[in-house]
């Protein structure tokens, strides 16, 4: 019997896509031991925006969150998403920081690290991959899937082979915008299976309505693992439903290893969580709908919502269609980068700026300037020379690996924090998100002081 395995995304990408990663640990803690019995290949539970959200909005220590999940799920592999040299942030970090972050992620409970670079620049994942392997975890090399004149099956095969040579244990196709058609999924999975000797994983979204069909055709082509979300937290900008895919693929003769009774328990648990999010407005029904604009503009759902928010804030929603049309032009000027974090945000902001200024590249963000200079890596295609000239003037682009120019950063940050950092994990939190981490440390200390005072008063009584 053919076998296919499932990665459950409700603890990370599903809730990130639907409710902006605002699910506190205490919300899902009661269901973790049940999830551990479902038969999942892995639980995607960390990385992506979860780290930032824990510190910024939930007043949680992301490392403690991970340790608690690990303790509650001893039988299931825990998985995270890592942006290569960007880690969980939006800039490149020194190699010593990348190595320490990976080491501590594994030490605190991560089994699988899915590692990608926004430009598919292999140089920007090499350090993270090597450290993952050294730390004894599974490095999943990731292809950011997109459509453009410079992206094709041949380029993806080459990338997969390069990652295989690097030592990764699997290849993940990351379709962040949900634009991969069923035929494209079948062709790419089949080609990868024929050219590399590694398990193939497929991650997609339901944004455009293609997700379920795309995963089905990928299964027919021999994909080994698929990403899905428990049904009440699936669809829209999230992943296809776990139960639906299990039902369909089981009928096609695949062995999934999933326990349907346990899946129902999990879904029943999250139904009131979803209802509460809808009632509070945290879950906007708009993100549950199918949005085919992404097929035309290659824009992920999260990027669309960001564009709407930007224009609404500036009372310029009448310019929305112009911005949509400008976005692919900016992407072409920049050599067709895949629209995934941080490139999706950067391209969207520049497109908006071009339209509102009435002149293309009159105003250029420091991120776009750094990108054009080459600090994010090598663009997939050729940059528009007129744009390069306008942005850089006579300054020469950088052609090396930018991280090689960065001095070590861990020990300096540790020295700066002093006693406020209670562990190396605290130092890494600070390096990733300085302001948010320092605010969290202050709140943590205040909470302990209040508890100490209360206990003294209780003794005095």
Strand order of the largest sheet: 2-3-4-5-6-7-8-9
- Overall pLDDT level: 94
Structural class: alpha/beta
Quick one: biggest sheet?
8 strands, parallel, barrel
Low-confidence stretches: none
Estimate what percentage of residues fall within beta strands: 5-15%
| Span of the ends, CA to CA | 69 Å
* Total strands: 10
- Spatial shape: globular
Please, what is the oligomeric state?
A: single chain
- Name the helicity range: 40-55%
Q: Helical stretch count?
A: 21
Radius of gyration: 22 Å
Structure write-up:
This protein is an alpha/beta fold and 461 residues long. Helix content is 51%, strand content 10%. It contains 21 helices and ten strands. It has helices at residues 13-19, 25-28, 32-35, 50-58, 62-72, 95-107, 126-134, 153-166, 182-195, 211-221, 242-251, 260-280, 293-297, 301-313, 320-333, 343-357, 366-373, 385-392, 410-417, 424-432, 434-460; strands at 2-3, 5-8, 42-47, 77-82, 112-115, 138-144, 170-174, 200-203, 225-228, 254-255. The protein has an eight-stranded parallel beta barrel with strand order 2-3-4-5-6-7-8-9, surrounded by five helices. Strands 1-10 form a two-stranded parallel sheet. Helix 6 (95-107) packs across helix 20 (424-432) and helix 8 packs across helix 9. The longest helix has 27 residues, at 434-460. The protein is globular, with a radius of gyration of 22 Å. The model has no long low-confidence stretch (mean pLDDT 94).
């Amino acid at each position: 019997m053919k076998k296919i395995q499932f990665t459950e995304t409700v603890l990370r990408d599903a809730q990130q896509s639907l409710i902006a990663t605002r699910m506190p640990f205490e919300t899902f803690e009661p269901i973790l031991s049940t999830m551990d019995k479902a038969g999942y290949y892995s639980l995607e539970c960390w990385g992506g925006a979860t780290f930032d959200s824990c510190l910024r909005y939930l007043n949680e220590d992301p490392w403690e969150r991970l340790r608690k999940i690990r303790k509650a799920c001893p039988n299931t592999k825990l998985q995270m998403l890592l942006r290569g040299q960007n880690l969980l942030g939006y800039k490149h970090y020194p190699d010593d920081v990348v190595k320490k972050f990976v080491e501590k992620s594994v030490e605190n409970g991560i089994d699988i690290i899915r590692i990608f670079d926004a430009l598919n620049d292999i140089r920007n994942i090499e350090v993270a991959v090597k450290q993952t392997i050294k730390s004894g975890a599974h490095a999943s090399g990731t292809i950011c899937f997109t459509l453009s004149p410079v992206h094709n099956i041949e380029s993806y095969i080459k990338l997969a082979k390069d990652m295989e040579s690097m030592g990764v244990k699997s290849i993940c196709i990351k379709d962040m915008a949900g634009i991969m058609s069923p035929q494209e999924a079948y062709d790419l999975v089949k080609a990868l299976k024929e050219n590399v000797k590694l398990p193939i994983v497929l991650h997609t979204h339901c944004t455009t309505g293609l997700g379920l069909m795309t995963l089905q055709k990928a299964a027919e082509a021999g994909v080994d693992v698929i990403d899905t979300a428990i049904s009440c937290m699936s669809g829209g900008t999230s992943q296809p439903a776990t139960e639906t895919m299990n039902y369909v693929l089981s009928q096609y003769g695949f062995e999934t290893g999933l326990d349907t009774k346990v899946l129902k328990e999990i879904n029943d648990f999250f139904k009131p969580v979803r209802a509460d999010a809808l009632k509070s407005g945290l879950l906007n029904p708009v993100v549950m709908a199918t949005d085919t604009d992404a097929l035309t503009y290659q824009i992920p759902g999260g990027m669309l919502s960001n564009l709407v928010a930007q224009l609404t804030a500036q009372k310029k929603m009448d310019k929305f269609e112009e911005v949509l049309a400008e976005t692919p032009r900016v992407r072409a000027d920049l050599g067709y980068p895949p629209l995934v974090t941080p490139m999706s945000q950067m391209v969207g902001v520049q497109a908006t700026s071009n339209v509102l200024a009435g002149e293309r590249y009159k105003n250029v963000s420091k991120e776009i300037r750094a990108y054009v200079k080459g600090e994010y890596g090598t663009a997939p295609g050729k940059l528009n020379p007129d744009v390069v000239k306008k942005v850089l003037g006579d300054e020469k682009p950088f052609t090396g690996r930018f991280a090689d120019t960065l001095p070590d950063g861990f020990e300096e940050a540790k020295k700066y924090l002093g006693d406020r950092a209670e562990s190396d994990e605290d130092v890494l939190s600070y390096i990733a998100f300085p302001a948010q981490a320092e605010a969290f440390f202050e709140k943590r200390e205040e909470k302990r002081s209040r508890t100490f005072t209360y206990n003294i008063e209780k003794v005095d009584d």
